[in-house]
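thought: user wants a sequence for this fold. calling inverse folding tool.
action: design(structure=
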């Protein structure tokens, strides 16, 4: 199913085959990073270059087979392809030529360390003569050439490809023939070469998958057009984008072409969203289909409703919330950090009259918290911040020791300590709070009871003096 959009009044359509390519390309990028990271974790666990070189072939083949080929094989079912065995698919797609080339580069460096200069020179000559015999994936020379050609086609579009040879140039210059094996292992360029090699091998496998799918659909399903086909060109897209900024009279037209040629470039989306408010909804719709995250742009738009002036007034905050909710509804968004901030501040303002000691107005505050339309996490923040112990269990809030101590002290320090009746009432209230929160001991309660005990002792002493005639 093709996708059609409108941007700046212009129609922009993507064929179904191009959509397939787009998402395969995204999958390839993500998978390449996953495989590279997996290899990096293995590399760092080795501790020495000898172990890496000794186990390299097995590790790379396992990563490429299990993480890439097998996952791609699972996609066949979604296209109703059930007549291809896993072995046949692996033979068609697995290609280790790029990772082999990276391995050869590091092996050359390793041999420079362990061989004398004369032998190393002879070895390099022999390696140069034999390097054309690239192996990997059972393809031989033909398969390797095919893989490189396909990778080049995709790299031209995606910009993913990294030149292993170029990286090697820097590596060779930074590690001399007399370098120690430890230095070779620890040099960041060594890992970089091997990571890029396995990353490029991943991209090559995806290119073979595209070739396989198109061939299968032509021969078996008898389709006339390619099943997966690119219409994208990132270099052209960047040219359109830069020229759009330089030629205002053609800006909108060129921006459409920039996006048409590289619908994965988030910089183009951000530029359009921020500069053209009237196109925000259109570019948002496109971004959702192509998995582009414009949430920061939308948050910036929402923040315009919540200014410093608005923060000073409950009434203005209420109006701002209405506007924010309208924007969120328009863009189909359910969460906003700005809205959370507004809700938290608004609820804090509404609850500012909550007394840190027992007060007839406190029950009103409790209902304000309960009835306010916001996420429970916001309510928990307010309850914890103001130490509203009456709601702590209801909203599963653990009030900090510091705030709880202050809350209990307020119960005691706010009363007339000269009145025994009020001291006992404060004691009862503190015990009520402690029981409600499951607390068995309190420094505040201890202080109160000490004061009460001192009063009793002082009373007896005074009585003794009177009875003794002092």
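)
observation: tool returned 470 residues.
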């Amino acid at each position: 199913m093709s996708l059609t959009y409108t941007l700046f009044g212009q129609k922009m359509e993507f064929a179904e085959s191009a959509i397939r390519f787009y998402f395969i390309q995204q999958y390839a990028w993500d998978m390449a990073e996953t495989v590279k990271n997996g290899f990096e974790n293995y590399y760092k666990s080795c501790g020495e270059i000898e172990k890496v070189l000794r186990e390299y072939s097995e590790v790379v083949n396992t990563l490429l087979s299990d993480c890439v080929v097998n996952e791609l094989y699972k996609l066949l079912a979604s296209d109703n392809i059930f007549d291809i065995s896993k072995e046949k698919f692996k033979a068609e797609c697995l290609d280790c030529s790029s990772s082999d080339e990276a391995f050869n580069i590091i092996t050359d460096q390793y041999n420079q360390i362990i061989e004398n200069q004369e032998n190393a020179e002879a070895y390099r000559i022999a390696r140069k003569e034999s390097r054309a015999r690239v192996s990997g994936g059972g393809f031989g020379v033909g398969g390797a050439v095919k893989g490189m050609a396909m990778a080049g086609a995709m790299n031209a579009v995606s910009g993913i490809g990294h030149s292993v040879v170029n990286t090697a140039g820097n590596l060779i210059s930074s590690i001399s023939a007399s370098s120690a094996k430890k230095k070779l292992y620890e040099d960041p360029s060594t890992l970089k070469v091997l990571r890029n090699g396995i990353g490029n091998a991943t991209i090559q496998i995806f290119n073979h998958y595209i070739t396989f799918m198109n061939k299968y659909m032509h021969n078996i399903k008898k389709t006339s057009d390619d099943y997966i086909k690119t219409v994208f060109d990132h270099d052209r897209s960047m040219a359109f984008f830069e020229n759009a900024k330089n030629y205002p009279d053609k800006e909108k037209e060129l921006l459409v072409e920039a996006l048409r040629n590289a619908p994965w470039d988030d910089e183009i989306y951000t530029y359009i969203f921020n500069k053209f408010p009237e196109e925000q909804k259109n570019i948002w719709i496109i971004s959702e289909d192509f998995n582009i995250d414009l949430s920061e742009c939308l948050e910036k738009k929402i923040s315009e409703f919540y200014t410093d002036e608005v923060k000073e007034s409950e009434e203005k905050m209420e109006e701002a919330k209405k506007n924010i909710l309208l924007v969120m509804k328009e863009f189909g968004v359910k969460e906003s950090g700005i809205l959370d901030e507004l809700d938290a501040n608004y609820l804090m303002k509404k609850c500012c009259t909550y007394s840190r000691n027992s007060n007839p107005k406190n029950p009103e505050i409790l209902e304000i918290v309960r009835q306010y339309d916001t996420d429970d996490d916001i309510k928990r923040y307010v309850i914890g911040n103001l130490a509203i112990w009456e709601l702590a269990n209801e909203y599963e809030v653990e009030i900090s020791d510091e705030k709880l101590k202050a809350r209990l002290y307020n119960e005691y320090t706010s009363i007339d300590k000269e009145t025994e009746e009020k001291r006992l009432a404060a004691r009862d209230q503190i015990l009520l709070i402690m029981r409600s929160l499951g607390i068995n001991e309190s420094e505040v309660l201890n202080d109160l009871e000490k004061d009460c005990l001192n009063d009793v002792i002082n009373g007896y002493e005074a009585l003794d003096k009177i009875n003794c005639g002092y």
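thought: summarizing for user.
answer: Here is the designed sequence. Residues 130-178, 459-467 have pLDDT under 50 and may be disordered.
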